[in-house]
Fold:
Amino acid sequence: MKFIHISDLHLGRRLGEFRLQEEQSALLDWVLRTATEHDADGIFLAGDIFDRSVPPVEAVTLFDTFLTRLAAMGIPLFAISGNHDSPERIAYGSSLMDGAGIYVSPCFDGSVRRIPLEKDGERVYIHLLPFLKPIHAAAAYGLPEEEVRNMTCSSAIAEVFSRMTLPRDGANILLCHQFITGSTRSASEEIPLVGTLDAADAGLFAGFDYVALGHLHRAQAVSEKIRYCGTLMPYDFSETEEKGCLLVEIRDHAASCTFLPVPAGLTRTLITLSGTYDTLISRDYRESCPYTEDYLKIQLEEDTPVPDAMAKLSVVYPRIVQLSYRRQENNFMEEDDDFRGEAAKQLSPEAVFASFYVRQNETELSEEDREYIRSLLAEGGESCGL
Ligand SMILES: [Mn+2]
Structure:
């Protein structure tokens, strides 16, 4: 059997002041086309359907259209709630939707919903585990408070799995929205993470034949059969990797996956443009630039701020999300050994400033500036004990 694995739609997400409605709608259309082209037996949607627990009306309408079209096409959808979703709202009307082949995870009550599917003598069981925190497992199983305090994401998931039985007469597929140890994170996920407490150990999932993961926005394989499909579009300028969905083929308890990239040019995308103000505003540049309609992060290579740069550039580039100056983005303090560890402690405040000034402005402090800094340090230094 064949399935399309998608996750993290984040319907209703905005990029700065821009709504991504058109892009998200085109991407959902593409998912439907892809499912039809590959004759898929279902779609896995591994959480973060919406960007917020109370999504805007346009996002709900978009998802409603998607569900209606899926049902009309007879393609089943298996979906779970992610950390951005409200599990109750996602589960709304789910028992009624079953009849239309739309299977949604209920709010977690301790058990994991299982849907059997059969075709040409091949059977699969699809298990829908919504986004889970230790506290959810503890509440569902009535665990004592001391135990909850020491519970990690791994132990919570182990608790859940210990109560599940996996039928052996078919392939077991799990939909799950968690951070799995060893995977790589992206900037747009907005997952607060301290150490590895929030990460689930990949070994826990050994009993499943395929784990369709959501949560991380970069497509990646934790192992052959434990995979993140990533988002369908970048949600941050740092996400330059290819986006798409996974085509998962299940045969004799084994899953084989193919990454299907979103075709270039299907939607507007996120691009960083760098240059001087004069270059970027010039007719030549604009006319040869294929990205004028895309969402832009503009890095101006200028020593001093250009007055009204944003307003003027917006006339030519209507979707500027961020505008910054190259020099402000110098993160040398993080990279430069002069500013770290023991070496930094040896430097006088004046030397640190002088060093900073050189890197920022590519010229030495003048004697006059130096004198001024000294006077400031003398003034402020007393109050902060320098
Ligand atoms: Mn997400």
User: Anything to note?
Assistant: The chain has three domains: 2-261, 270-329, 339-383.
